[in-house]
Write a structure and sequence with these properties.
The chain is mainly α. The chain is 66% helix and 0% strand.
Amino acid sequence: MSAIPNPTVKPSPTKTVPHKRELSVPALADVTKVVTYSATLGGTYLSVGFLFYYAMKEKLFTDGGTMPVPLAKAFNGSFFASVPGNNAAWTLLGVLELLVVVILAASLLRGEFLPQRRKPILLAGLSVSLLAYGVMGLANDMIGNNATVIELFTYFGVTVAAMFLIRNMSPYRPMSWLSGDVDKA
């Protein structure tokens, strides 16, 4: 005769002993994720931040809001020479560049460089830099300084590419895509 199992008696669960987690060296893939992310954002903050910092410093502090004489001669007779005036235009451009620096500093203070943080302030700072490039490009178009316009258009395009890159970085996408480790999130 076979024994009929008693439904009221539950088998005792097997007890498992928790294993101690061993400390290990981070995998190369994890290191490359962090290094790639940090280098990309660090390069963005440094290149854009200091580009606008030194430009703003020259206009507002070194030149004291006075457009250098060779530039003033180049803009003589242009729209900017009459409205708002060369020195006022120079100062306003310096203020616009200062705004970029302040916004990028606010982004850093907010901790937007951390992978888990969204980056709206950084993206706003880069957007204001696009406005600055546009203003400078328009001014140089007015005086026929095509070489500078082409340079500014290149800065504009590279900044747009940087914005798209940032929108594809963590936290918007997994960190792994940037380092080439696409199989893991």
